[in-house]
Specification:
InterPro entries: AB_hydrolase_1, AB_hydrolase_fold, AB_hydrolase_sf. Pfam families: Abhydrolase_6. One of its GO terms (cellular component) is membrane. GO terms for molecular function: hydrolase activity. It contains 10 helices and 9 strands. The protein has 287 residues and is of the alpha/beta class. It has one domain: 3-Layer(aba) Sandwich (Rossmann fold), CATH 3.40.50. Strands 1-2-3-5-4-6-7-8-9 form a 9-stranded mixed sheet, with helices on both faces. The longest helix has 16 residues. The two termini are 34 Å apart.
Length: 287
């Protein structure tokens, strides 16, 4: 499971974008996953894995994961989920299932870590940091593998469906079809329609209105930080308040003058709270 394509982008000596092949299983076909390592020279440092938003990719993170890893003295792993970036696109006739985020947490991410030879010991020291849909996947991974990570950070996650989320996602569809949003996203995805409609169609489906991962939150035992902006138009504070109700050890961070993307809207405030939290729970991280 270690076959690797030639790098498609090189950013310095140890920030490299490439693809790794995940073989077919009974549940899915073979996949190519775009990924990038950060700070590989820190060979003994813990690993931070970054999970992107519903329309994100390796490239769309820009330099934010690097800034977090540099402040913490950690290695980093950034990757594009199937259907996004340079990873295997979603076939247009295939609709995402209601539990697509659970599949990512319990199947795709563990398979990627296996393919990249991330050992069980490394995973116990690993932090998972996710934004939006990636934040939800972070919570699901922490619930499914409670003894296999050091901690988790969920940024603007979804744990149930709110009307404000559906309304904003419907507005995004209008923007995609009537403005330059499609051309902007096309810079970052090999199949932009696959990426957009895979995300948009499932979120706007009737079946998804009852989606919830609230019950799974009670299985999270690792240190957990949940972050949300007060001006988030894709979800309210009820999302992270619910996390704290179900996983009482959760630390909440509520950011002023911040929308759905704290790493873009309030990067300094977000970095400060993440670094402070991880330093308190991981003695091997350095600032």
């Amino acid at each position: 499971m270690n076959g690797m394509a030639e790098p498609v982008t090189t950013l310095g000596d140890d920030a490299r974008s490439a693809t790794v092949a995940l073989p077919a299983t009974a549940q899915r076909g073979a996949l190519d996953i775009e990924y990038r390592w950060l700070n590989t020279h820190l060979t003994d440092a813990p690993l931070a894995v970054f999970l992107h938003e519903g329309l994100g990719s390796v490239a769309m993170w820009k330099d934010w994961p690097q800034s977090v890893c540099d402040r913490l003295g950690m290695r980093g792993l950034v990757y594009s989920r199937p259907g996004y970036g340079r990873s295997t696109p979603r076939p247009h006739h295939v609709k995402l299932p209601v539990d697509f985020m659970s599949v990512q947490a319990r199947d795709i991410l563990p398979a990627l870590l296996d393919a990249l030879d991330v050992s069980a010991e490394e995973r116990k020291r690993m932090w998972v940091i996710g934004h939006s849909d990636g934040g939800s996947i972070t919570l699901l991974y922490a619930a499914a593998f409670p003894d296999a990570l050091a901690g988790a950070v969920a940024i603007a996650p979804h744990v149930f469906v709110e009307d404000i989320s559906v309304a904003s996602i419907a507005e995004a569809k209008t923007a995609y079809e009537q403005s330059d949003l499609r051309s902007k996203l096309a810079r970052h995805h090999d199949d932009v329609d696959s990426a957009f409609y895979g995300w948009n169609d499932i979120w706007l489906s009737d079946a998804f209105r009852s989606w919830s991962i609230v019950d799974e939150l009670e299985y999270i035992r690792c240190p957990l930080l949940a972050v949300q902006g007060y001006d988030d138009h894709y979800g309210t504070m009820a999302q992270i308040d619910t996390i704290a109700q179900r996983a009482s050890h959760t630390r909440l961070a509520k950011l002023d003058n911040c929308g759905h993307s704290p790493h873009r809207d309030a990067p300094q405030a977000l970095n400060d709270v993440i670094v402070d939290f991880i330093k308190k729970h991981d003695g091997s991280a350095s600032a």
